[in-house]
């Protein structure tokens, strides 16, 4: 479960944000829609406590992330959050498999090759595990990015513009995969996007 309460953030006195409250139960999905520059990435970074809010709270299950120290926040994020970034940020010198195992390493968990292989099969890149990430197409990289986000069976999946560079077919595929994965592991799924095509796939949504 993820819930926010009266989140505000300032980059400067001229750039201030007040965000709507969000509530997303386990296995549910929530869409945050907004045009370019409305603060979607800022909001997602607040949800992941990659940015510290000026005021308000971010609750994941029983934990208020805004009350944690920086070290506790980093540990909590690695264990309980799966993030699909706007750009994947892979380690290009490592294989696809090792990029997936990196999620285990960062969460201080044993490397789970069986889970990496299982996800690669489900998400359709089992043949690419030994390749470097820059040898994959954009759509394939997107699916690896989703697999990496769910490697540790997180409580919450956050996805930043996961479909912006994809055609209609791959867009609906990615949405289906994100929803399937979040339902399988019982996570809350939060997607931020300007992509109006996603509107009909999400009952719970808010506009920024
Ligand atoms: N580090 C920063 N310092 C100052 N202003 C920033 C910073 N990062 C973002 N902004 C500004 O805050 C606003 C919201 O940015 P944000 O990246 O959250 O928007 P967005 O809705 O995700 O946009 P896009 O869809 O174009 O990625 C923009 O006007 C941006 O210029």
Under the CATH scheme, the architecture is: 3-Layer(aba) Sandwich
Indicate the overall shape: globular
| Overall pLDDT | 93
Question: How are helices and strands ordered from N to C?
Answer: EEEEHEEHEHHHEHEE
Q: Estimate nothing, just give the exact number of structural domains.
A: 1
Termini distance? 21 Å
What binds here, in terms of ligands, is:
adenosine-5'-triphosphate
Keywords: ATP-binding, Nucleotide-binding
Domain ABC transporter: 2-206
GO cellular component, one term: plasma membrane
InterPro entries: AAA+_ATPase (IPR003593), ABC_transporter-like_ATP-bd (IPR003439), ABC_transporter-like_CS (IPR017871), ABC_transpr_LolD-like (IPR015854), P-loop_NTPase (IPR027417)
Description of the structure:
There is one protein chain. With 208 residues, this protein is α/β, with parallel strands linked by helices. The protein has one domain (2-207): Rossmann fold (3-Layer(aba) Sandwich). It has helices at 40-47, 70-80, 96-106, 113-123, 138-150, 168-185, and strands spanning 2-12, 15-18, 23-24, 29-33, 55-60, 63-64, 81-84, 156-160, 188-193, 205-207. Strands 1, 2, 3, 5 and 6 form a five-stranded antiparallel sheet that branches. It has a five-stranded parallel sheet with strand order 7-8-9-4-10, with helices on both faces. Strand 8 (156-160), helix 6 (168-185) and strand 9 form a beta-alpha-beta unit. The radius of gyration is 16 Å and the shape is globular. The mean pLDDT is 93. Bound molecules: adenosine-5'-triphosphate (ATP). Adenosine-5'-triphosphate binds next to helix 1. Residues 11, 15, 34, 36-42, 194 line the site of adenosine-5'-triphosphate. Residues 2-206 form the ABC transporter domain. Keywords: ATP-binding, Nucleotide-binding. This is ABC transporter ATP-binding protein. GO terms for molecular function: ATP binding; ATP hydrolysis activity; transmembrane transporter activity.
């Amino acid at each position: 479960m993820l819930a926010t309460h009266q989140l505000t953030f300032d980059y400067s006195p001229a750039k201030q944000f007040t965000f709507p409250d969000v509530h997303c139960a386990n296995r549910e999905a929530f869409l945050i829609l907004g045009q370019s520059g409305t603060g979607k990435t800022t909001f997602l970074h607040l949800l992941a406590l990659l940015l510290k809010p000026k005021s308000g709270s971010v609750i994941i299950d029983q934990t208020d992330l805004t009350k944690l120290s920086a070290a506790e926040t980093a540990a909590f994020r690695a264990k309980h959050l799966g993030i699909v970034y706007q750009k994947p940020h892979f380690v290009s010198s490592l294989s696809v498999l090792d990029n997936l195992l990196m999620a285990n390493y960062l969460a201080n968990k044993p490397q789970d090759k069986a889970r990496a292989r299982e996800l690669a099969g489900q998400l359709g890149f089992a043949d690419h595990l030994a390749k470097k990430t820059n040898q994959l197409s954009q759509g394939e990289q997107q699916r690896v990015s989703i697999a990496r986000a769910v490697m540790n069976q997180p409580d919450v999946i956050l996805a930043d513009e996961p479909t912006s560079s994809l055609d209609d077919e791959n867009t609906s595929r990615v949405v289906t995969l994100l929803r399937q994965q979040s339902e399988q592991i019982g996570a809350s799924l939060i997607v931020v996007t300007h992509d109006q095509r996603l509107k009909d796939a999400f009952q719970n949504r808010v506009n920024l």
